[in-house]
Amino acid sequence: MSSESFSIENHPDRIRWNKRYEEEFDLFDKNPSEIVMQYYKIANIGKALDIACGLGRNSIFLAEKGFIVDAVDISDIALKNIKHKNIKTYQADLSDYKIEKESYDLIININFLERRLFPYIKDGLKKDGVLIFETFLEGSPQTSNKSYLLKKNELLHSFLSMQIIFYQEKEVITHKNEKAYKASLVAIKKC
């Protein structure tokens, strides 16, 4: 385990997520996200970053399509479940994680929100790199902490400097059969 792992050993998010993965493993969706399956093809096959990868459902999908994937999450329990020769896992606290500049052909961020990462995501993409971002909007029951939920059109406005390929806000039914609201964005870095 790296020294970085020791520094987050007692982090409340790590403890909370490890507990959820241990107790609710069978409840987590193991299928790749629809938006990732639909839009990964517009990215150059190369290096990808999966932010808050969880159990790696999207990382594994991308690795099987030929990407070399950096999969980042705070939960060491989740990361231990990801086994693929094209995936390198990193345990990190995403509230202070830094994405290396101009390193990725594709960055995905699914069901996670850390606004501080927005400029790092843009900078982390190579020219013509693709961003696939989808997470929950206010009004969703996923969390009582409103800072983890997007405001209406917030995701769109945060990435307007990129070429927007797709944007949508809609009501969805989660794998737990709950009504929720999500914002979905696909964009390309052109400069």
TrEMBL record:
Pfam families according to UniProt: TehB
Stretches assigned to the Tellurite resistance methyltransferase TehB-like domain: 33-177
Q: CDD domains in the record, alphabetically? A: AdoMet_MTases
Entry-linked InterPro entries: SAM-dependent_MTases_sf, TehB-like_dom
Which SUPFAM superfamilies does this chain map to? S-adenosyl-L-methionine-dependent methyltransferases
Per the record, the domain of life is Bacteria
Q: What protein name applies here? A: Tellurite resistance protein TehB
| Organism of origin | Venenivibrio stagnispumantis
Question: Taxonomic lineage of this organism?
Answer: Bacteria, Pseudomonadati, Aquificota, Aquificia, Aquificales
